[in-house]
Write a structure and sequence with these properties.
The protein has about 110 residues and is of the alpha+beta class. Helices cover about 35% and strands about 25% of the residues. It has one domain: Alpha-Beta Plaits.
């Protein structure tokens, strides 16, 4: 009978934040608020809170990789941005970490 060692859990090391505009969002209002949003997001980057930032290619929105490990902290940080305060952007927050299958390289399955 083969014995398998359970994969060690991996820690959350970042949060993937995907920001989109709810249906019916007034995009003229978004454009008005956008300069402040960009400034404050750049400040988060300079403060080390935003690691990477991207535009979504299939729709209006953004993807951030955040240097935080707590979803609640990420939510508070993003809701404090101008578009968050105006309830014009919503975020899906996904905790991410090291690729779990890589643990098999360190703890190979040993047949018994």
């Amino acid at each position: 009978m083969a014995h398998t060692t359970p994969m060690p859990s991996t820690p959350t090391t970042k949060i993937l934040a995907i920001g989109t505009f709810p249906p019916g969002t007034d995009m003229k209002l978004v454009q008005h608020i956008l300069p402040g949003e960009v400034r404050e997001t750049a400040q988060l980057y300079l403060d080390g809170k935003v690691d990477q930032w991207y535009s979504l290619q299939d729709r209006a929105g953004v993807a951030f990789i955040l240097n935080v490990t707590d979803v609640g902290q990420a939510h508070e940080m993003l809701e404090a941005l101008p578009l968050g305060k105006a309830h014009l952007m919503t975020f899906s927050l996904l905790p991410i970490g090291p690729l779990k299958p890589l643990g098999k390289l360190l703890n190979p399955i040993s047949p018994q």
